[in-house]
Amino acid sequence: MENKKWYKDRVLYQIWPRSFKDGNGDGMGDLIGVYEKLDYIKSLGCDGIWFSPLYPSPGVDCGYDISDYMDIAEEFGGMEAFKKVLDGAHERDMKVIMDLVVNHTSTEHEWFKKSYQRIEPYTDYYIWRPAKANGKLPNNWDSLFEGKAWAWNEERQEYYMHLFAIEQADLNMDNPLVREEVKKILTFWLDMGVDGFREDVITFISKKDGLPDDYIMPASKGINYFNHGPHLHEYLEEFKRDVFSQYDCMVLAEAPMVTPKKALEYIDESQNPVLDMMIQFATQEADCMFTDFYHTKFNLRKLKKAYSAWQNGLEGKGWNMLYIENHDHPRMVSRYGSEKFRVESAKMLAVSYLFLKGTPFIYQGQEIGMSNWYPSDPEMYEDVQTRWQYFNVATKKSPEKRLERLWHGSRDSARTPVQWDNTENAGFTTGTPWFYVNENYTEVNVASQENDENSILNFYRKAIKLRKELSAVRHGNYTEYGKNSSTLYTYAREDEKQKLLIVCSFSENLENWDVPVGFDMDKAELILCNYENVDATVMKPYEARVYCWEK
Ligand code: NOJ
């Protein structure tokens, strides 16, 4: 069946289930809560949901360590609750995307237990290697979460590879039986009616033959040999041929370090692509080096360069996935925006990416401008990666400085419960929340913003509505102006019907704006702005404007 590309006209909402909404009072977000909020999500103008993992899991990596791929965790309401949400979403013309995490499974998965006992056919489902002479590790690769990429299994008397947590064992995708399992999982969910997948670190599934030592990149050894490995394209092609091509579904691949050029090897629409879109990381790196933990001063030019590289690089060939937040990065108002100008900067950040070409995703809480969380004690962090960074990575820095690093870098900053109202626990649960609620919930919450015409929430609604009405956003080409400005991001979108000019200030000062040559401002209509009064050539702190010329 031909892929109808429904995703090109939609805006998707990401739910990280634990912290979205608790419907049964046990303190953990669940699908009962999601069902209650379907109309809310739809009211934003979102017509699709990406669910971070809902499957049974010991929860070492908050669900990204799966112990059963064909079920829904009881804590989220089980399969019955899921089917109700799926039907409820479809009734509202909303698509549902699942997370597919098959680079690794939980070490609690049946396959792993059988694998270490060498019970066939599971013996080679994972990447097992004996110790080298003197008990040395099979190679020098690093785990991205916890130390080296190898853990010893007593029963089997071998090491298994874990590119993430110790309890996340890497699958051996070179084994055709493992690929058959993946296809069974995909078919199971697609037959149930889900509309696609977001594939977790899928570019890591093919490791270089022989698993050689990596000498090139001291920061994270191995990445040169497991990212975009030798059989990646072949395996993705197999999944497409045997499964995805039979359904009207969307496949979105998480792809650390991918460039637009590399992405086109997978998503070029003229080349029978194996994927629909890729999640790039370049636009997340304007205030850090490699990962959020290595915080640097925010650099707008770096951000603009990344946006333009992706807009121009895929033009006419592939389709962009657009996002500013997800469950893996701290909140954007606290990063590229400003907590002091929280309302203004949250709106500006919305404009900065919602008018680009591609399919935007909104992460829960982003639409009300939720900001970072600043715990006083490192023990309050839950995330496995964050805890390793604090408690295990050697550094000479003081405990205060190390804690501060977590404030800027931890994923937990974006994992506090969604703030629904100003009642106890922000209306997230009637029980005891599984995680800390950000103290600013009395000020920052959905209920108060529903009643305020000028709220961030209502601004998102307006921006999304406009984006859907304007053909130039869907089809138009992209041109960046004022590239050298370190405070303003100006870009135009144009098709045969309209010309749009978007300008966003990333500064807390007044900034002079040079109107790009060729734009007749007397004829322009200002269709969106986060301030009431506009001074044509001076941008107020975090001001954002969208101008339109109808042709
Ligand atoms: C990427 C996911 O987004 C992240 O949350 C997870 O920890 C890792 N992959 C490992 O599955």
Q: Brief overview, please?
A:
By secondary structure, this protein is of the alpha/beta class.
What does this structure look like?
This protein is of the alpha/beta class. The chain has four domains: 1-96 and 320-370 and 416-469, TIM Barrel; 104-172, Oligo-1,6-glucosidase, Domain 2 (Oligo-1,6-glucosidase, domain 2, Alpha-Beta Complex), CATH 3.90.400; 374-413, no CATH class; 475-550, Golgi alpha-mannosidase II (Immunoglobulin-like). It is 26% helix and 17% strand. It contains 15 helices and 22 strands. The protein has helices at residues 31-36, 38-43, 78-91, 110-116, 176-192, 223-226, 232-242, 260-267, 300-314, 342-354, 384-391, 399-409, 446-450, 456-469, 471-475; strands at 12-15, 48-51, 95-100, 104-106, 128-129, 150-153, 158-161, 168-170, 196-199, 250-254, 277-279, 288-289, 291-295, 321-322, 359-363, 477-481, 488-494, 498-505, 511-512, 525-529, 538-539, 544-550. The chain has an eight-stranded parallel beta sheet with strand order 11-10-9-3-2-1-15-14, with helices on one face. A hairpin with a 3-residue loop joins strand 17 and strand 18. The radius of gyration is 23 Å and the shape is globular. The protein binds 1-deoxynojirimycin (NOJ).
Write the topology of this structure.
Layout: E1 12-15, H1 31-36, H2 38-43, E2 48-51, H3 78-91, E3 95-100, E4 104-106, H4 110-116, E5 128-129, E6 150-153, E7 158-161, E8 168-170, H5 176-192, E9 196-199, H6 223-226, H7 232-242, E10 250-254, H8 260-267, E11 277-279, E12 288-289, E13 291-295, H9 300-314, E14 321-322, H10 342-354, E15 359-363, H11 384-391, H12 399-409, H13 446-450, H14 456-469, H15 471-475, E16 477-481, E17 488-494, E18 498-505, E19 511-512, E20 525-529, E21 538-539, E22 544-550
Parallel strand pairs: 1-2, 1-15, 2-3, 3-9, 9-10, 10-11, 14-15
Antiparallel strand pairs: 4-8, 5-7, 6-7, 12-13, 16-17, 17-18, 18-22, 19-21, 20-22
Helix pairs in contact: 10-14
Residues 61, 64, 101, 164, 200-201, 254, 327-328 line the site of 1-deoxynojirimycin.
